[in-house]
Design a protein that fits this description.
The protein is of the alpha+beta class. It has a domain of about 100 residues. The protein is about 65% helix and about 15% strand. The protein has a two-stranded antiparallel sheet. The protein has a two-stranded antiparallel sheet with strand order 3-4. Strand 3 and strand 4 form a beta hairpin. The longest helix is centred in the C-terminal third of the chain and has 58 residues. It is rod-shaped. One of its GO terms (molecular function) is unfolded protein binding. One of its GO terms (biological process) is RNA polymerase III assembly.
């Protein structure tokens, strides 16, 4: 259903603008989260490539216990990785399968990223149109007030 926003009262147009701004903020936040996830998966692939290198076996590394706590360790088997497949489940995979898993996730996130970007563009264009109508309505109100002031003289 389409609404001709030029027929709405200024207060209604302003409310519509607030709604579109809120939606735009929501989608922008979602886009940022997708970007963070994409970077995390790309980092996983880079780490797998680094550890699965034939020179990496026996190499000392720092193993994260939390986001800010690490312990020293050594690479024992550089072709076995525990991959987080979601909701706290981990699956042991070799380097090739781990990279394929992360690449498939990256492909899906790229599709989602493009969809959200498209939605953001549409919402931005609509918001610009709403702003244009608001300016026109404000100009019309000023014109009417000036005419009323002129008529009272």
């Amino acid at each position: 259903m389409s609404i001709d926003i030029t027929k709405l009262e200024p207060e209604q147009v302003l409310q519509l603008r607030k709604q579109f701004e809120s939606e735009l903020d929501h989608f922008t936040t979602s886009l940022n989260a997708l970007s963070v996830a994409l970077n995390r998966y790309k980092e996983c692939i880079a780490n797998i490539n680094q550890v699965s290198d034939k020179n990496a076996e026996g190499k000392e590394i720092l193993v994260p216990l939390s986001s800010s706590l690490y312990v020293p360790g050594k690479v024992k088997d550089n072709d076995k990785f525990l991959v987080d497949v979601g909701t706290g489940y981990y699956v042991e995979k070799n380097a090739k399968d781990s990279i394929e898993f992360y690449n498939s996730r990256i492909q899906q996130l790229n599709k989602d990223y493009q969809q959200v970007t498209s939605i953001i563009n549409e919402k931005s264009q609509t918001l610009q149109r709403v702003d244009q109508v608001l300016r026109e309505k404000a100009h019309q109100v000023e014109k009417n007030q000036a005419a009323q002031a002129q008529a009272q003289k």
